[in-house]
Amino acid sequence: MSEKLRVGILGGTGMVGQRFISLLENHPWFEVTTIAASPRSAGKTYEEAVGDRWKMTTPMPEAVKKLVVMNVNEVEKVAAQVDFVFSAVDMTKDEIKAIEEAYAKTETPVVSNNSAHRWTPDVPMVVPEINPEHFQIIEAQKKRLGTTRGFIAVKPNCSIQSYAPVLTAWKEFEPYEVVATTYQAISGAGKTFKDWPEMVGNIIPYIGGEEEKSEKEPLRIWGKVEGDKIVPATSPVITCQCIRVPVLNGHTAAVFVKFRKKPTKEQLIEKLVTFSGEPQRLGLPSAPKQFIQYLEEDNRPQVALDVDFENGMGISVGRLREDTVYDYKFVGLSHNTLRGAAGGALLCAELLKAQGYITKK
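RESULT FIELD:
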């Protein structure tokens, strides 16, 4: 019997589900033993259920091809097979909330890529390098759910990963006003160029709901655990525009910042390159050794050159310079389906295991 924890993927046939499956191939701690999806996929092998819709650049792992897909709605049945689940289901927000709570109530921890529970007051929304202490709220959540080991934890939106870690590294200089424009890849919508041809040579200046998430979610990450809820921070004030661009993977942000304590450029760069957190201290399997890199060249970071920095789990920053209206401006880049989606959730699960929240059933 493997010592690895048994993992279920809810919504395993979609793009993020596929990314989870490829990331978990040969993982030292976790093993995919169960894949659940919509009733129309249930009963087929994973290979049959996905068919020609495999969107990863690496081949489908042999270990999952013959797994028979279960019906994600048969909660008790799926939960009985696993130690914990990753959630990447494609449903309405209310349906996602309900099904994730149902899994948690079977004493199965749920690490979710979905946005449905990001504002549930006792659900931690965590970037492991930034706010690992928010996992403490899980005890209050278990009381509400009436569970001993079941809970829900989520990761934030992919759009904020290219600038929220940077602003966190600069916290001591008290950034108080931020303007960010994000240039977001099509894989963030679960698409490739093959199934979204109108994005070729085009940009679309609207992504539904994204601007609000980009402005508000960093404040929740910087918030404090108070009693049975997480109270968001009130500063810095962030205003954001989100634009879809013809790039497959990689969200770029152009960001302007005002500080209460104005630092030098050298101080800012030093804070970036030395910034690390619990994942680095603990040497978690998916953790980047260098969380944030600073690139001196005028034409970096570039998606083509830098999106895969630290296997897509690191953040790249460049073009830091003084501004005539704000104090400083910079460009950030993060991999939206690795650090921003499945990889970020996987790192959360690794930290939850390291902290004793996820164990064998």
